[in-house]
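Board work, copied verbatim: 3-methylcrotonoyl-CoA carboxylase, subunit alpha
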Amino acid sequence: MGAAAIAAGKALDYSNAGTVEFIVSPQGEFHFMELNTRLQVEHPITEMTLGLDLVELQLRVAAGESLPPALLQGTPPQHGHAIELRLYAEDPVQSFLPGSGRLEHLALPAASAHVRIDSGVIEGDTVSIFYDPMIAKLVVWDLDRPRALARIAEALADCHVQGPKSNVAFLQQLIAHPAVREGRIDTGYLDRALDEFLPAVARFDATATVAAAVTALLHAEADARGDASPWAPCDAWRMQGAALRELFLQQDETRLRVLARGHDGDYELHVDGHDAAFLVAGARLDADVLSLRVDDRALRLHVHHAGSTLEVQHDGTRHGFTLAPAYVAASASATHDDAVRAPMPGRVVLVQTAVGAEVEAGAVLLVMEAMKMELSLRAPRTGTVAAVQTAAGDFVEADSVLIRLG
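↓ predict structure ↓
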């Protein structure tokens, strides 16, 4: 393919940066698709395997300089294997619906000879609806493909995004999938088997739950150490022995109650629904890595704690938890299905209903446009339209109530 690309450039007497694209058949034959007269988003792969800075070369040529003599003699040899992933603010579960909003927390792996990060945003920036929602390009290099796959898995484990939904968990499922690791993937595979790559529906994971609870306890104890008051320590000391501390962890629709006894990394944990206690010893946090022993089993897990949110990576799956209050107000879920909300910021294109209209569950009530896509918003249930709170042409914010059912 490389030789064919060079031949195409010579045939055109082409003298600029360009990207030649081919498509490969199941039989291994490749066919020319197009020549893009520019560098494309995948150019770091070429740079890392050839040891070139294509952007610098392009700028030097534009400034009137010639290519280095070594390049004029031929293409340098390719060395090693590189993989590029794109971190996006999008929701893979919702057909990769683009997201937007403030990056409340953004942590990416450190750059090195093996890891390259290309990003135009930092923590605190806003992913806008007016541009591509890419957060960063994550590129790794190593001597061969298996090692590069191991590198990309390590790098993804160090990626944390809070704010808009991201595709980080999807990418972890992707690079762990046998079809990808064995090189059996094709351009139609995701369309045929997308469910194989989507993050699993959150299920109870005892190890992840214990890790989340321990992380919360360690953070609470660390926060209390700076206070000299004898009432500040949160080890629950009592004259009759340490009292139980109560934690509530919310995971999607599931609320987990955890009772903890102990402090400073040694705990006895009781989780509702499980008869046996979990005995934790020697737990400690080093940045985003939690080391501990659970029932004499040594564990080392990637965790992240920000505000009331906790994320634990275990067995290739990211488990998200929220520290919930002990008491919650009466649920508003009874009225939740009465509202049709904007899934993201955008402009209303068409309103297809009116106050008083009888609608069936799933009927399209309005169409909005965002990030060059049209989104059809449907009735969550059968009912009567009680209010229409928008009109065609309106710009609406994410989560705005547009229509209410009675």
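The longest helix spans residues 206-224.
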